[in-house]
From TrEMBL:
Gene3D superfamilies in UniProt: Type I PLP-dependent aspartate aminotransferase-like (Major domain)
Protein name: Pyridoxal phosphate-dependent aminotransferase
Aminotransferase class I/classII large domain sequence ranges: 39-375
Signal peptide: none
Pfam families reported in the protein's UniProt record: Aminotran_1_2
Assigned keywords, A-Z: Aminotransferase, Pyridoxal phosphate, Transferase
Organism: Actinomadura luzonensis
InterPro entries associated with the record: Aminotransferase_I/II_large, AspAT/PAT-like, PyrdxlP-dep_Trfase, PyrdxlP-dep_Trfase_major
GO molecular function: transaminase activity
Amino acid sequence: MVRPNSRFTHVQPFDIDKVAAAAGADPDVLRMENLDTDVPPPPAAVAATTESLRAGTGNSWLPFTGLPVLCEAVAADLRSRTGLDFDPLRQVAVTSGGTSAVLPTLLATTEPGDPVVLTDPTYAGLLQRVRLSGARPHLVPLRVEGGRWRLDRDALAAVPAAAALLLMSPSMPSGVVLDRDDWAAVARLCERTGAYLIYDAAMERLVFDGRPRVNPCQVDGLAERTIIIGSVSKEYRMIGWRIGWVAGPPDVMARIMVATVYNTTVAGGFQQHGAAAALTDPAGGGVAEAAAEYQARHDTVIAQLDGFPVVRADGGWSCLVDAEALGLGAGELSARLLDRGRIAATPMTAWGATVAPRYVRLVFSNEPVERLSELRARFTAALP
């Protein structure tokens, strides 16, 4: 008999792998269930990784918190985004992907039972890691206004206590982009509660329609409280490299580095050289071009589903369709889309509490516009 463990009492499993397994390898299925992408990574990153493999420069356990070349590249990138100087040795730690930084950061900033504020919906990998850390999620809803997601600032202002806020912008799975007034509301809550802001910046530059990008460190009161998590997976399309980082104030970073080292020892050295090349690529790593391609795909999805209860994203790789507005549960809609429409799409069961579970996510990062142009016909075939 398995011994009980309270950390797992409320942890919910992913459904992505189940949907992917059900879809199999059928080439006719639109693969909209997982955050893969067919947009290639930067050639400079591929070349640097290949050269590191050839030369054997990354085959080491050391340094535990990241190669200096990558830590320096991260610090320079953060300077351009935030206007702040980060010490590459004391304020940057390299991790095995961005989400691998989340649990060490939570362990360093919370005690068991502490409330951590997230949005509803949010990425399941963030929400469930809060639970695994022993902290307690406090979910603040996103609301649909004018066909787009907006943060419920009144609900945010009503949060009584928090050890940390764990936020993403653009956020998975909704594609909401937090504006300066949203971040100002976050700053007020952090000031009132003494909370850290843990900011997942993995998609920060993947915004649509020329919307302004606001890094929270640029907002009064947040720079000294913000811990930034980044990676090369989304902006640079380097999912398989599994390289991320965490950066923040030196005092808390000392604890985060300890937790990171004892969690994974070290991230892959060959991949770190590739990540450094992406961050320092004179061509910009193709980020702007990728963002434009994702917007074209998003806009195709929205046009194809005109009249359906789909919510526009302001950035990122995915958007959400309201299953309950179609008279179905999210799981039932997901099953119908696959069985009748040949669309693999994931129900948001583990991605929130009251808002997320009514939605199904449509990922547009791994399907070209030509195939997404079949979406309306496939949806029509799937629905009664």
